[in-house]
Automatic annotation (TrEMBL):
It comes from Bracon brevicornis. It catalyses: queuosine 5'-phosphate + H2O = queuine + D-ribose 5-phosphate. Belongs to the QNG1 protein family. This is Queuosine 5'-phosphate N-glycosylase/hydrolase. GO terms for biological process: tRNA modification. Keywords: Hydrolase. One of its GO terms (molecular function) is hydrolase activity. PANTHER family: QUEUOSINE 5'-PHOSPHATE N-GLYCOSYLASE_HYDROLASE, QUEUOSINE 5'-PHOSPHATE N-GLYCOSYLASE_HYDROLASE-RELATED. Its EC number is 3.2.2.-. Signal peptide: none annotated. It comes from the Eukaryota. Catalyzes the hydrolysis of queuosine 5'-phosphate, releasing the nucleobase queuine (q). Is required for salvage of queuine from exogenous queuosine (Q) that is imported and then converted to queuosine 5'-phosphate intracellularly.
Length: 78
């Protein structure tokens, strides 16, 4: 589905994406803190790391994920 940059749907998807990434970061940091013997800094997990992981995952598993709807937006910002 092609969306117009800044339309209500695109802004909602973008906002929800930001929120869920922040929730993943908090959950992963919580898990890291539960296992201090792993010697991992909880702050090594951040929104940028999670966002890149999700993008890379999507690219690696593109064929398996084609059955799920995906929106497209033409923009210079991302």
């Amino acid at each position: 589905t092609m969306l117009t940059s800044g339309c209500v749907e695109e802004v909602e998807i973008r906002g929800c994406s930001i929120e869920i990434v922040e929730q993943v970061v908090e959950r992963v940091r919580g898990l890291i803190k539960q296992f201090p013997n792993l010697n991992i800094n909880p702050f090594s997990c951040n929104a940028i790391v999670v966002d890149h992981f999700l993008w890379d995952y999507r690219r690696r598993h593109a064929q398996r994920l084609e059955k799920f709807p995906f929106h497209h937006v033409r923009t210079i910002y991302y």
